[in-house]
Structure formats: C-alpha cells, structure tokens
Amino acid sequence: MTDHPTIVLGSPGLSPDDVVAVARRDAPVTIGEDAAERITASRSVIEALAGDSRPHYGVSTGFGALARVHIPRDQRAQLQRSLVRSHAAGTGEEVEREVVRALMLLRLNTLATGRTGVRLTTAQTYADILNAGLTPVVHEYGSLGCSGDLSPLAHCALAAMGEGQLRDRTGTLRDSGEALAEAGITPVVLAEKEGLALINGTDGMLGMLLLALHDLRDLLRVADVAAAASVEALLGTDTVFAADLQALRPHPGQASAASNIRRVLASSGLITRAVDGEFTRVQDSYSLRCSPQVHGAARDTLAHAAAVARIELGSAVDNPVVTLDGRVESNGNFHGAPVGYVLDFLAIAAADVASISERRTDRFLDVSRNHGLPPFLAADPGLDSGLMIAQYTAAGVVSELKRLAVPASVDSIPSSAMQEDHVSMGWSAARKLRRSVDGLARVLAIELLASTRALDFRERDTAVAGTPAPATAAVHALFRTEINAPATDEFLSPTITSATAFVQGGGVLRAVENVIGTLD
C-alpha cells in the first residue's frame, strides 16, 4: 500500500504527476462528486436512446465494418460482452504493471468526463480494481493505435467482467473472477455502449508517454551532469557555456542545459582556463562543446511532447461521445497521431543524447584524446583492459537506440475491412520509447563510470593540480560507495549495473542537488 493522498477524479482533472503516482506508487483514486454527476447525466442520454428507432453506433449497431448491422434490444448486453471478448486479442509478453495501471487510470479519467455514457457503477469498478492493486494481464502486441488502444483496453475490460486473468498485489497470476471476489468487487455486467466506452481510447500510448516524460526530465538533467563531469575530467574548458554565448541562440532548452553545466562545474580546479603568457586549449571537441545544444534540443522536444500530453490528458477520447448538449455523435478523436508523433520525436531525442554521451565516453579511453589518462582507463594497461568493453556496451546500446528512433507513426496498415484504413501505430511508438529511455540511462551511467574513474587517475597524477568541483566530487563519492576505485580488472557487468541504478534510482541527481540545489 501507499501513504500517497487519494487522487480525486473530476475537477480540476488529473495531472501528469497523478498518473505516475497511481502507476508506480499505488496512489488511491476516487470519483469526485462532480464527475459522478456527469457520468450519471450522460448515462441517462444513452438509456433514452435504447428504444430509438434510428441506429446509434455502439448502442444499437455492430462495430467497425459491421456498423450497418442492427442489433435488437434483447441482444445488446451480449453485443457488449462479445465486443470485449473478441477485442481482447493480445499476444506476446505481458506489459509492465505500471503501464497497465496508467492505462486503466486514464480510461477511468475519460469515463469521469461524462462524455462516454457508462454507468457510475462501471466507472467505480475500475477505481476499485486500481485501489485493490489488481492488474489485468495485457500483452505486448495487439494495438494499432486506432481506434485507440483497443486490444490492451479490452483485456482490462475483460478482467472487470470477471473473465481472463490478472495479477494481484503480490504479482501472483490469478483468475480474474476469483481475484475480484476475494477483493469484494462485483464483476461488471455491461449495458448498452459500455463495452465500447471501455476500449476506445489512446490511454495506453498516453500512459507510456507520461511515464517516459517523467523519466526523461530526470535523465536530461543527469545528461547535463555527465557532460559537465566529462568536460572536467578531460581537463576541458567551461568558457563555451557562458550565458551570453548561449543567449546568442536563445533556445530555452539550450539555456537550461548550459546553466546546469555551469553550475555543476562551479569551483572546479580541473577546468582549463586561459592564463596570460601560456598557450592553452581554446576549444574542445563537439561532444563536449556542443552538449548544451544537443541536450537543449532534447529538452525543447520534451516540452512540446509535454504540451501534447497535457491536452490529451484533458480530453474525452471515445467514439461515439455524448456531447455537452446531449447528442451522441461519432467522431475520429480516438486516432493516436498526436500522441504517436511525439512518442517518436522523443525516441529520436533520446537516441541523440545517448549518442553524444557515448562519444564523450570514448574520448576517455583514447590516449590521443584523453589528455594524460591511461589507455582505456586501465590501472595496468595491457595486463588490464579497463573500460574498453564498457564503451562497446554503450556503443551497442546507442546503435539499438538509433534503430528505435525510426518512427512508428509513419507506418499504417489497414484493418476492419478497410473501414479503419489509416492507423497511428502509437502503441508501437510508445513501446519502443520505453526501451529507448532505459537505454539512455545505461549509456549515461557508463559515461559517469568513466568520468568518476578518470578523477581517480587525475588525483594520482602529480602533474595535474586542482580538485574537482563539489558537485562532481559528490557524484564520485556516490559511485565509490559501491564501485571500487581503479585497480586490477574486476567483473565489469555488476559495476555497470550499480552505475545504472545510481542513474535510474535518482542517486546521481540527489548527490548533485544536495550540493548545488535543484537543476533546471
């Protein structure tokens, strides 16, 4: 369980942080009074249509290419059950628990808008399942991102019906009906329109976008720390990060990245600075000098993606919808293009930030470019290989991220007898972005592994005067709590795992921000 405050669905609506809290920390949810009133009001509209002689999509007709088939009133409950059962057609590995929880919460958030026509009891069942820590089994493959994430959402609806499988709070695979009964939750018996309302949305791709945005905000700050640490340990110059130089090209992300790098490097005694009468390096390589430009572009891409996510988070995505004036209208708002595009944009940004990080790592290992460090940062070069293969690992990840940066949203494949003849592939874009975010963290961890190791050699070198900046010294101290200073070669994989945990678990950021305050 969690001690997180209960999140109320309704006015003013979910925030991105709310989604992360429910998905990752099991924050409880409840349906607010205003949302309950909206749900009840829209349900009355649907019930009024039940006896209407005119066809209404999803109420008295079939679905997709079968929308011209009229369904008699006594078969409409079966229509909704059949819809969910047939659309729960996923296959492949199970999707992560946090993704399924985000997906269910976002579907519930749309139900709370009162634009879908479900009964209040149906919406409450979703809240109860979330609060009980029950997670329907959702599979990797099955969504084309239009009409939304049909198959993943159908697996969740199936569990709410007491069918299929889910995992309980301990992660044990359970029969859905048995697990619901044990939790005191009555399975839903779907009424008109409800099956459609539970499966027709962009909730899976949006949930993964919000989780990725949360992680990437931290990783881009770590990237600034890593770049600064590399500049320092390679005896680079910080003059290029000056605020007035950055202001000549006033992209906001670039300004933030350069500010972070300046702050991390403040008071460093290892930075190369011009001295009257002495020849010093006037500029560093692109991977050092252009870090704010690359990291900043990624930040600006993140800001755009966050703006799209905020709009989507406040949207009512369903088809048909109950309008504010009580009409029930078909629409195309379920198409995942807005979300799919930014998911792909972020995968491109993640790949490029990882790429420039790997290039900085590589400079540490080459004696022609590392300014006095031993080959491959080996304690006894030749006998030892140091971080030679750690760079291979980073390069392999970067190569994978470049493949993952190929957009999914430019693809489309027709479905439903050409009724759904253009789809977003947003789910696929989201799945590959999750892998990209993980890969970026690992590449940054290897760069920090190199820079902290380099500091040990700088300390031993009597020809190099000066001490590291307080911020980079804090990162070095953190790494030395679990990772040994360079000596004879050790089993390297656990070392990379520890470094990655420092990045993904927030240890690097905490170490730096405890010294210099919150980074931009």
From TrEMBL:
Signal peptide: none annotated. It is found in: Cytoplasm. Pathway: Amino-acid degradation; L-histidine degradation into L-glutamate; N-formimidoyl-L-glutamate from L-histidine: step 1/3. Its main location: cytoplasm. One of its GO terms (molecular function) is histidine ammonia-lyase activity. Its EC number is 4.3.1.3. Gene3D superfamilies: Fumarase/aspartase (Central domain), Fumarase/aspartase (N-terminal domain). SUPFAM superfamilies: L-aspartase-like. One of its GO terms (biological process) is L-histidine catabolic process to glutamate and formate. It is an enzyme of class 4 (lyase). NCBIfam families: hutH, PRK09367.1. This is Histidine ammonia-lyase. It comes from Klugiella xanthotipulae.
